[in-house]
Amino acid sequence: MHFVGVPLATLLQIGALAGSVVVVFYILKLRRRPVAVPFEKLWERILRDKEATSLFSQLKRFLSLLLQLALLALLLLALGDPRPAANILEGRNIIVLVDASASMKATDVAPSRIEAAKDEVKRMVRGLSGSDRMLIAQMDAAVTPLSTMTSEIPDLEAAVASIKATDASADFARGLRFGADTLRGLSSPEIIVVSDGALGPAVDAAGPVELGDVRISYLPIGSRATNVAITGFSVRRYPLDKSRYEVMLEVTNTNDEPVDVELSLFGDGQLTDLSQIRLGPKERLPRFYPNLSGASKTLEAKIAYANGSRDDLPADDHAFALLPERRRSRVQVVTSGNMFLEAALLLDEYLEVTTIDPSRYPAKGNFDVTIFDGVTPNVAAGSGSLLYLNPSGENVPFEVGKPVEDTDPNYRLGFDELDEKHPILRYTVLSDVNIGRARPLKGEKEDKVIGKSYKGPILIAGTRAGVKFVALGFDVRESDFPLRISWPLFLLNTINEFVEEDVQYISSFRTGAVWQIPASSAAETATLELPDGTKRSVPVKDGRAIFLGQQAGFYKLSMGQDETTTFAANLVDPAESVIKPATELVVGGRAAGPVGEFKVGVRREIWIYLLAAVLLVTAIEWLTFHRRVTV
């Protein structure tokens, strides 16, 4: 027998001291106070009867002493926590990885898979032997230990109660590596995976996970696999009509049978489109919605069975997106006068244009875009992105060649080569533009040549010190470019490329990833409000708030009272929407075994029974005292 609580030597010292005190109290004679009585002869007879039973009284007091000493001994033994040597050597060290991915929100088992998993883990906790130790960890996009390695039942049950399923996939390899590292050097190591089995292979960037001598066990959760899902959702505004937008989404049928579904689109909470489609077995169907209107900020998509029934995973039936903000862009035009330029900028109501003479540059305030028309002054702070029209001189971030004119009868001066996929050429036709005179432009290696004549590049784009620029190597008034519809399109596309996130804009983040959310570079921390209403403080680094997001819905990032950013997040993971439970889990070519050796109510901790004995002896002492057996 070993004492794993208070050492035996300490128990003996405490017992000797406490036992001496108890014995001393019982040895002390009982002091009686004198009382005057009216007739002495009557009391002499009573005292003679008392002397006859004095031996029995002493025996009763000795029995009371023994009971008190027994109580003391039981309490001391409970403090020592005695355990058989075999129990100490055979104790297991167990890591329980509870899958908290989105598929565990499935409702094929009541009330959900995650709640069923928690019930199973609670049974294991209550069936731990006194020598076993366990650690509970939640496994989703990260691995979160919810307890220490302990045998304390209340601590483990509290850890199980705190488990909550997320809207992300589980990083199985990370969970196994966490378990293997935690169990390294411990006796009888075991990892128990409680999951529906939709975990994927146990492989990460470091390669396959090797568990060595760690035992791996698997407790499967789930029964059915009926599900349809939204597995893709994005939105963008049209660059020339920001009141209209287009939506791209993808729906998936994970079933083996065809299904009829209803697909609903909501703009700012109002229904804007409702369609019914048929999905074949295992079909992934993309859907494109062009030329939509009716929403200014938020979009939501919902999918449901056409017959009104519900699938087993509601988490992927709903997707969210945020439309780019329709804000006014401040444009500074530095020109001596250009009617074609000024007229084209009037076509977009979301442009706030300030036109100044070159001698008055820069204008007051900060601008998103500055257009230099035939001038190249030193760029002032607050000018934003730069559009050069017919640049010349040395104050440009590229080389400007000598003028070339359209005098060769065999070759027309114009755009001979075009990068028609570039965003600033969207919806334009420049191949037949005639140019009277131009200046070839030569940028750096990283710059992009968008348009090229037989004399060299005449339309380039690039970035200098984080500032975007586009340069057009001729005066539009010396061409027929302004007489074409492509001229205002070119201008508005260029401004849109500068100020809108049309190419890089993310209408929604993907759950389970580390997000880098645009934030004020002056702030060090920001407050993030999650879809469930909870708030978190997140760090800000280099103008980006860093956060591992695992909930789908709309978020709000606050950097101050007047500076807030709203964004959306979605699951959109086809693999996570396949919720068919796996009956077998294989790690490194080794199949996980069944979970066993947990019997509810069986504990080998002797101190529990010693405390029960203390209660029993106390009850006996109370009963014998009131029955006047020990007094």
UniProtKB/TrEMBL annotation:
Residue ranges annotated for the VWFA domain, each copy included: 91-276
Matches recorded under InterPro entries: VWF_A, vWFA_dom_sf
SUPFAM superfamilies per UniProt: vWA-like
Keywords associated with the record: Membrane, Transmembrane, Transmembrane helix
A Pfam family the protein falls into: VWA_2
Chain segments annotated as transmembrane: 6-28, 62-80, 606-625
Name this protein carries in UniProt: VWA domain-containing protein
Origin species: Polyangium sorediatum
